[in-house]
């Protein structure tokens, strides 16, 4: 699969929040962010609020606030730095959702206009079956997708479906007891005294793979990524950051 096609299908379609610091700034502040997150730093966050300067709003679905508080920015940074490959609206999910919407519109039109006997139940069945197939596809991919999280109990690996259903996943323990290695570019092995987890990166977007390389060492995980560690940043991600930073 070409890089452009992989980016199109697997990357999130949601634009990055322009009130978040750049990725380089987040990584530079990551250790103090983690110490604050887990109560190991006495000082509280003093991050300034961000006033929106474009025509959008900070929370378009929940009101028209033009200011994002420093506490909210800090909380979002904590979430960003403590999770790798969280569930996102990947391109294929949104693309299939658009097709489902169009099909259902046609089925609704058919249901309203066609008076042929049996047309109504057929259109209704198709209109219900197509969204169910879409949701089933998301569920199947979510079963195979893995995210890696850091919380008070240590590092854990969960399926996306575990995250959606509130299940704990596989607990590996404190990051200092864990080793991580890449047997090849798409196979991550996480080992600890508690458990061993093999994570396939085949369905991970490139930005999630880069996050893994950047963040696991900051957590305290003993990493053996070799030449994979020095992979250059993806052009698309760098371009998005440049555009975002230009709006700040």
Query: Considering DSSP H and I runs of 4 or more, what fraction of the residues is helical?
Result: 40-55%
Judging from the principal axes of the Cα atoms, what is the shape? Answer: globular
- What integer value in Å does the Rg equal? 21 Å
Low-confidence stretches: 229-248
Distance from first to last alpha carbon: 35 Å
Give the oligomeric state: single chain
How many domains? The number is: 2
Q: What's the SSE pattern?
A: HHHEEHEHHEEHEEEEHEH
Number of helices: 9
Largest sheet: 4 strands, antiparallel
* Average pLDDT rating: 79
Beta strands, count: 10
Share in β-strands: 15-25%
- Class from secondary-structure proportions: alpha+beta
Order of strands in the sheet with most strands: 3-4-5-6
Provide key terms for this protein.
alpha+beta; 10 strands; four-stranded mixed beta sheet; 248 residues; 47% helix; globular; 9 helices; disordered C terminus; four-stranded antiparallel beta sheet
Structure description:
The protein has 248 residues and is α+β, with helices and mostly antiparallel strands. The chain has two domains: 174 residues, no CATH class; 52 residues. Helices cover 47% and strands 17% of the residues. It has nine helices and ten strands. The chain has a four-stranded antiparallel beta sheet with strand order 3-4-5-6. A hairpin with a 4-residue loop joins strand 8 and strand 9. The two termini are 35 Å apart. 20% of the residues are buried.
């Amino acid at each position: 699969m070409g890089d452009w096609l992989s980016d199109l299908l697997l990357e999130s379609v949601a634009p990055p929040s322009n009130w978040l610091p750049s990725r380089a700034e987040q990584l530079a502040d990551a250790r103090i962010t983690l110490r604050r997150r887990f109560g190991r730093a006495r000082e509280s966050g003093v991050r300034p609020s961000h006033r929106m300067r474009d025509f959008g709003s900070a929370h378009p679905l929940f009101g028209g606030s033009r200011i994002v508080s420093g506490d909210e920015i800090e909380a979002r940074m904590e979430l960003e730095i403590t999770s790798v490959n969280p569930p996102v609206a990947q391109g294929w999910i949104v693309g299939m959702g658009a097709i489902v919407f169009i099909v259902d519109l046609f089925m609704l039109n058919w249901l309203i206009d066609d008076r042929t006997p049996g047309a109504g139940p057929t259109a209704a069945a198709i209109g219900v079956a197509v969204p169910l197939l879409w949701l089933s596809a998301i569920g199947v991919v979510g079963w195979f997708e893995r995210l890696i999280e850091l919380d008070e109990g240590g590092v854990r690996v969960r399926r996306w479906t575990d995250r959606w259903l509130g299940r704990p996943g596989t607990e590996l323990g404190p990051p200092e007891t864990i080793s991580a290695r890449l047997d090849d570019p798409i196979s991550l092995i996480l080992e600890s005294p508690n458990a061993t987890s093999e994570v396939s990166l085949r369905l991970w977007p490139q930005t999630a793979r880069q996050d893994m390389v950047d963040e696991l060492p900051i957590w305290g995980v003993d990493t053996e990524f070799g030449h994979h560690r020095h992979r250059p940043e993806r052009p698309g991600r760098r371009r998005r950051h440049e555009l975002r930073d230009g709006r700040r």
